[in-house]
Write a structure and sequence with these properties.
Layout (H helix, E strand, L loop, with lengths): L3 E2 L3 E8 L7 E9 L5 E4 L2 E2 L4 E8 L4 E11 L2 E4 L3 E6 L4
Parallel strand pairs: 1-9
Antiparallel strand pairs: 2-6, 3-4, 3-7, 5-6, 7-8, 7-9
């Protein structure tokens, strides 16, 4: 991922679940903002193990965390946590 800044709009993220999602009945990317607010993003499967989604606006400075949530067969749960930092502009 590249460097992200406060106010960036329509930022696309792609996460790898490292699990076959082809039989998933439900899935999304969940994002935890630095404030503790959680976003549930409508996602698209882009390969056997990867999801892609768009964050409308990066509106908080700090460390954001993202995870894939999926329902595959009888299992449902979260994948690995990915972290990225949102910086103050011009930093």
């Amino acid at each position: 991922m590249s460097k992200f800044y406060l106010g960036d709009a329509n930022t696309e993220i792609e996460l790898d679940s490292q699990t076959d999602l082809s039989s998933a009945s439900d899935y999304e990317i969940r994002v935890l903002k630095p404030s503790g607010a959680v976003l549930s993003l409508v996602s698209t499967i882009v390969s056997l193990t990867k999801l892609k989604a768009t964050i409308t606006e990066l509106d908080e400075i700090g460390t954001w965390k993202a995870q894939i949530w999926a329902n595959v067969g009888t299992w449902s749960g979260l994948g690995e946590t990915y972290k990225f930092k949102v910086y103050d502009p011009y930093k």
